[in-house]
Amino acid sequence: MADYKFEGWMGIDENADKGNMVWQEFQPKAWEETDIDIKITHSGICGSDLHTLRSGWGPTPYPCCVGHEIVGIAVRVGSKVTKDIKVGDRVGVGAQSDSCLGRKGSCENCAAKLENYCPHFVGTYGMHHFNGDKSYGGHALYNRSPSHFVFKIPDAVPSAYAAPMLCAGITTYSPLKHYGAGPGKTVGIIGLGGLGHFGVLWAKALGADRVVAISRKADKRATALDLGADEYISTDADADWAQKHAGTIDIIISTISSSKMPIGDYLSLLKLDGTLVQVGNPDDGVFQVPALPLILRRVTMGGSAIGSPAEIVEMLQLAADKKVTPLVEERPMKDANQAMVDMDNGKARYRYVLVNEQHL
Ligand SMILES: [Zn+2]
Ligand SMILES: [Zn+2]
């Protein structure tokens, strides 16, 4: 039997995002022999944590322990786990912790190894497992997740880098890969935050010809170029940017999660048959999308949700091979409330990762 307790930072009402999470014990899902328990060392803070803590995307089932960029050590591995994971291995869990795969009447998306589009998607926190138990996230001491959604971390990828890759990283990697970002392509990344900075890193790692980072303020120019961007557009400071760069980009990933962005101008940046993929999910209203920029260059606008387990494995290997180095700031787990407030105030450069120092 487990000799450890599941404790973590719990949101208990919709003011939880304002520095009001409380440290509490919780009951993880009932153990199944396909599960893995993880002694958490690192847990990245995602924008979704804030949206969920404040019920921004609909009512949250409080108490809720957020955090879905989890890295730690496997401390219990079920007898029916078929993956090559042993007690003591460094492992991670992203934003999804279960799907209908392997269950009776399993869906066609799971059959196609696109479990992230399963209609029975179970999020790593704030949702319910198939047995009815609530899912609890990573701003905690331990996590229990079904092994299909637990990944071995390659030795070459430090834990503090691997953690944010598991949500911010895969959310940008998946659409870039899907839409063919690589040699011969120009890629645009809108928003240079946690997600966007990964977008720039992956686009370069995948071998895109040109990467254009697009953000509001001028002050992220140096960082964007350091990350590998070939060009930086400040929509505040660069006059006539939309006209100047019109029709020059093949694939745009928009990481903005505000409905107030100039979506028509962004669409006008695309070449013929270009694609804009929206990965940020605003909680402040809906977009108004003008039709003309879609029509003029046969442009497609779409969306994308995290990535599949197979893509996560592929991404972690790319990170190891290309020594992908995200910009993370480690914060002690005990300071989670302050870190959450700082994140909300846009102070993260570019991802906060909470660290359980006693587990290192
Ligand atoms: Zn996330
Ligand atoms: Zn499914």
UniProtKB/TrEMBL annotation:
It comes from the Eukaryota. InterPro entries: ADH-like_C (IPR013149), ADH-like_N (IPR013154), ADH_Zn_CS (IPR002328), CAD-like (IPR047109), ER (IPR020843), GroES-like_sf (IPR011032), NAD(P)-bd_dom_sf (IPR036291). Its cofactor is Zn(2+). SMART domains: PKS_ER. Coiled coil: none annotated. PROSITE patterns: ADH_ZINC (PS00059). One of its GO terms (biological process) is alcohol metabolic process. Its EC number is 1.1.1.2. CDD domains: CAD1. Gene3D superfamilies: Medium-chain alcohol dehydrogenases, catalytic domain, NAD(P)-binding Rossmann-like Domain. One of its GO terms (molecular function) is zinc ion binding. Keywords: Metal-binding, NADP, Oxidoreductase, Phosphoprotein, Zinc. It catalyses: a primary alcohol + NADP(+) = an aldehyde + NADPH + H(+). SUPFAM superfamilies: GroES-like (SSF50129), NAD(P)-binding Rossmann-fold domains (SSF51735). Homodimer. Belongs to the zinc-containing alcohol dehydrogenase family. This is alcohol dehydrogenase (NADP(+)). It comes from Aaosphaeria arxii CBS 175.79.
